[in-house]
Amino acid sequence: MKLFLGVDGGQSGTTAAIGDETGRVLGEGEAGPSNHAAGAEGRAKLERAVRGCVGQAAAHAGLDAATLEFESACFGMSGGPEGKHAILSGLIRAERLRVTTDAAVALAGATGSGQGIVVIAGTGSMALGRNGQGRTARAGGWGYVFGDEGGAFDMVRQALRAALRMEEGWGPATSLRAVLLDATASIDANEMLHRFYTPEWERSRVAALAPLVDRAAGEGDAVALHIVNQAAQELAVLAAAVRGQLWKPGEAVEIAYSGGVFKNRMLLERFRMLVEMEAGNKLGPLKHPPHLGALLEAYRVAGVSVELRPRVQRD
Q: Is the pLDDT reported for residue 2 higher than 80?
């Protein structure tokens, strides 16, 4: 039996899927973040995450992880493939190994045709598209220092800034201050700020506080509402930027959304309204999650055309 592997590695977690030559998904697995490979600590985290998720997927499939050999494997990695190919080739035995971005594998599973746009908003954010001529374009994905607008980390950053302004008397009152202080066990916003600069509060942990902003917005906090609406606006701008590079006005374009930020129904509906204001745009969820998009890419690299079939649950 020929085996294929797809892995989606991100700032929040790493997910793997193993499939056979017919497109049947045999097993899936999850592990921790794997977005960095620089330095000994980053490499160790990457290796741990890959071994963990692939091992779990193998166990679910009833396979021995120690003896696995793949016809083809594809890894979609947050932060890009740079420096990761050599590490991954030492962890996985595969006849063909492709290492690409997390956005590329999300797009691969986004629509039935493989064409369209995917907007990703997890810890960070970006948009990627492919048109009928095979041309691709992207927008965003500049990282937490210079970009990632509309992502979970950015939403929490805006909430912290609002708490600091309120504390110093030059911003409006907001429930976000009390909510975030409680969540971080901080005395004041200044202490919380310094916590977020420590290794104990890596970006994925900070981003995990974004649902607190969602909740405050749902309860009517004006500052939180502004943050949520602004995030939807920023993400819609990314989609529009990609569309403008690849399609003419009025052409039909499938747009899919991916990432934990879109679990906020308020944000998603505003994003939908903004995106579908453009004639021809049609928004929907991913046809397949990113790790299955990576699996589809693994088949494509091997020249195998399949329709994915879901894994049969085992007792």
A: yes
At residue 314, does pLDDT exceed 70?
A: no
pLDDT, one tens digit per residue, over 262-300 is: 999 999 999 999 999 988 899 989 888 889 999 998 998
**CATH code for the part of the protein at 3-102+289-301:** 3.30.420.40
190-201 in b/e form (b: 16+ CB < 10 A) is eebbeebeeeee
Domain ranges of the chain: 3-102+289-301, 113-286
How many other β-carbons are positioned within 10 Å of the β-carbon of residue 252? 10
Q: At what angle do helices 152-168 and 176-184 cross, to 10 degrees?
A: 110
Rounded to 5°, the CA angle 57-63-69 comes to 90
Is there a shared CATH topology between the 3-102+289-301 domain and the 113-286 domain? yes
Q: At what angle do helices 222-246 and 210-218 cross, to 10 degrees?
A: 110
Closest by CA to 288, choosing from 43, 100, 105, is 105
Q: What is residue 134's predicted lDDT score, i.e. its pLDDT?
A: 86
**Which residue has better confidence, 270 or 199?**
270
158-188 pLDDT, tens digit per residue, is 999 999 999 999 999 999 999 999 999 999 9
Considering the four listed CATH numbers 2.60.120.620, 3.30.420.40, 3.20.20.410, 3.30.1360.70, the one that applies to the domain covering 113-286 is 3.30.420.40
Predicted pLDDT of residue 96: 92
